[in-house]
Amino acid sequence: MSNTATILIESGNEMFDATRTTRVLGALLVSMTLGALLLMLMESDPPRPSQSDRASIAGSVLGQHASVSRKWRRVIIHSAADSNSNLPARCHFVIEPKADSQGLGVRSTELWKRQKPGYHALVAADRDYNADSIGICLVGDFSKNQLSQGQFDALVALVRDLQRSCTIDGDSVYLYSQLDAQSGSPGRNFPVADFDASLLQVN
Predict the structure, then answer these.
(1) DSSP label at residue 194
(2) For 203, which of 129, 139, 152, 169 could close a Cys bridge (C-beta 3.0–4.6 Å)?
(3) Cα separation of 187 and 78, whole Å?
(4) Is 94 helix (H, G, I), strand (E, B) or coil?
(5) Residue whose C-alpha is closest to residue 95's, from 76, 114, 112, 108
(6) Residue 175: phi, psi to the nearest 5?
């Protein structure tokens, strides 16, 4: 008998084909590996809005006025624990907690519609940040809570649209706490690294 012939093993009243068993076990192992890889891919993070989707979120908000003044040179991000605070009215844009990828929850205030300076950046006696800075107020206590994905996406879309419209570089977009060391706004749970990575370099 040839050495390559199928080996038959007798066990009790049963006959086993060793070559066939090996092939079946090999196929099973390959199937299990592929199945595990497929499950790992399915468990990854759900797709986020593309840059073009994000760009459309704030378009209608910016279009609520005839023209954008050339005076705007900075964007400053704030937070207010709730809508009862007077800070939202002192900023140019407000983003509510239920903001989503369609821009719901994002609104411009009368200051922006009239292209007037806000009263949101009270940081230095020798520098009037209010004169040329666009204030954005996120509604929520981010010292305790996490920013929702929808609210974050709406913020990114709005800021990027403002950067394009007003030619504001990423280096001129600030969290309020970066200008005022005494302030924690917009809160320790704000995703600083993700936000910084989303900014445009337009100059």
Answers:
(1) H
(2) 169
(3) 9
(4) strand
(5) 108
(6) -85, 145
Strand 133-139 and strand 106-108: the pairing is unpaired
Instruction: Report the alpha-carbon distance of residue 100 to residue 25 in Å, rounded.
Output: 49
User: Radius of gyration of the chain from Cα atoms?
Assistant: 29
Closest CA to 148 of 112, 86, 201, 104: 104
Distance in Å from the first CA to the final CA of the chain: 81
Question: Computed from CA positions of residues 170, 119, 151, 146, in that sequence, does the dihedral angle turn out positive or negative?
Answer: positive
Could you tell me how many helices (H) and strands (E) the chain has, helices first?
8, 7
pLDDT band (50, 70, 90) for residue 124: low
> What SS3 state is found at 55?
helix
Q: Which residue has the higher pLDDT, 147 or 49?
A: 147
Please give the distance of CA 110 from its chain centroid, rounded to a whole number.
Answer: 27
Q: Quick one: DSSP state of residue 202?
A: -
Consecutive H or E run containing 165: helix 149-166
Domains and CATH numbers, the chain: 8-42 (no CATH), 51-198 (3.40.80.10)
Q: What is the pLDDT of residue 5?
A: 42
Q: pLDDT tens digits, residue range 185-197? A: 999 999 999 999 9
Distance CA 139, CA 186 (A): 9
